[in-house]
Amino acid sequence: MNTEVNRSPEKEVKKVIKKPDEELYDFDEIYENYNLKIYNFLYYKVQNHEEAQELTQDTFRKAWTKIKNLELTEEQIQSYLYTTAKNTLYDTWRKRRIKTVSIDNVKDSASEMLLPEDQAIEKEEMETLRSAMDKLPPDQKKVLELRVMEGLSSKVVALKMLKTPGAVRNLQYRGIKNLRDILKGMEAFENDF
Known about the structure:
It is a single chain. Helix content is 66%, strand content 0%. The N and C termini lie far apart (94 Å). It is elongated, with a radius of gyration of 26 Å. The protein has helices at residues 27-46, 49-67, 74-96, 116-134, 138-149, 154-161, 165-191. The chain is mainly alpha-helical.
């Protein structure tokens, strides 16, 4: 009769007696035990299967180079993998980050090739948009600049603004609605003259 109690639903990671030029752990087993968990953790963060798969692979590649020569407990291995996954995700976000661009500095190279009359119209439209954006509440303006002008995801904007992704989407919805109303009001005002 086996009286040993299984402490964890995962398989125990086998510790191998290390011989020269050999690894301390069976990394295939570590991968098998934690691959799905790390993938799910990353998928929850990025909401994209391909990106989560790539990040999971990067996490295990980075972990393999470090874990193979360390003596860690199973809990330490799990903690190390989650920390590596989180850091890999943050590194990816950091690399993707687009320089913050003010709406005042937005210039499209195609606009430089327009006829002078069209450039004047475009300049006037940008001034109208800038003026309308300035009338928005600060949070709505910031969300629209980050989401629409810079193309950042709601999750990245949420991290930058210390809000939830749902709050960011709500601010974006209200910002677009308010901007539309402001622009309609400005158009009606111009048509009166």
